[in-house]
Amino acid sequence: MDSDTWRRRLASLWQSSIPLATAMQVEIRRLDPQRLQLAAPPGPNRNHMGSAFGGSLQGLATLAGWGVTLVATGDAERYRVVVRDAHMRFDAPVFSELVAEARMPAPAALTAFRDALARRGRARLTVNVEIRGADDAPAARFAGEFVALEVSGG
Amino acid sequence: MDSDTWRRRLASLWQSSIPLATAMQVEIRRLDPQRLQLAAPPGPNRNHMGSAFGGSLQGLATLAGWGVTLVATGDAERYRVVVRDAHMRFDAPVFSELVAEARMPAPAALTAFRDALARRGRARLTVNVEIRGADDAPAARFAGEFVALEVSGG
């Protein structure tokens, strides 16, 4: 699957099956071999102080990390991905659009991840996600541990 | 403010100012000097596998921790609360209603928190939140660091 196919696949999956992604108005801004970038407007994601709600930032980062892990499996039909651990550090409030960028794993990490997946039908990936504010300054950092599992049956 | 007043205050704040809390259909199930318990139905919080979306669990836990910290200040007009750090460990999927319970700080911790707040106009609180599934088994654990700040002006 190429990046455009993955982009459509993720968008359709979130739109049809994750109501909160629709409520947050999550949009896939960019997907290429280096990164997955998601964006969401401030309106539906605001808190009582007019900045981004911490739960929205965690939700957006979780979707980004989850998406990167599914793309890393190379096969959206064969594997499913679950989040095991999530940590977010909030450094500055976000008053503008919420933008989360998850880095794709480096080539060596990707190879190790796919080898483990092929060998054991299960592999773990740590994904770092950065949230940036209007002036492109880092606003929050997320590290998530995701597990890909081979779907049984067939 | 007594527990009933706080309960109405939190509910009104979330309903009027945090659209995602409304999208998640968050309800304050219980608020007393020991705990704040929030609940949300599975429907709007599901993922593509029919269990609770990790972002919803983090959002619910963040609201619970935030609520406990605001209640701990003793004065919703004088202080505002922001989340600084959030960690969630996901142990088991939640297929039923989402229930998050945050523990109020122990008396000594509450006294220290309020002393710091009165002295410096700023204090930090770590709040533990537990998510339980249908059979009341622990499904996810959250630890959040929240900062209360005196609202300037006046």
Oligomer: homodimer
Order of strands side by side in the largest beta sheet of chain A? Answer: 1-2-4-5-6-3
| Low-confidence segments of chain A | none
* Residues in helix, % of chain A: 25-40%
Give the largest interface.
A-B, 38 and 38 residues
Percentage of residues in DSSP E strands of chain A: 25-35%
**Major β-sheet annotation of chain A:** 6 strands, antiparallel
Derived from helix and strand composition plus strand pairing, the structural class of chain A reads alpha+beta
What is the terminal-to-terminal distance of chain A? 21 Å
* Average pLDDT for all residues of chain A: 95
The number of helical runs of chain A is 4
The coarse silhouette of chain A is: globular
What pattern of helices and strands is seen along the backbone of chain A? Answer: HHEEHEEHEE
Number of strands of chain A: 6
Please compute the radius of gyration of chain A using only Cα atoms: 15 Å
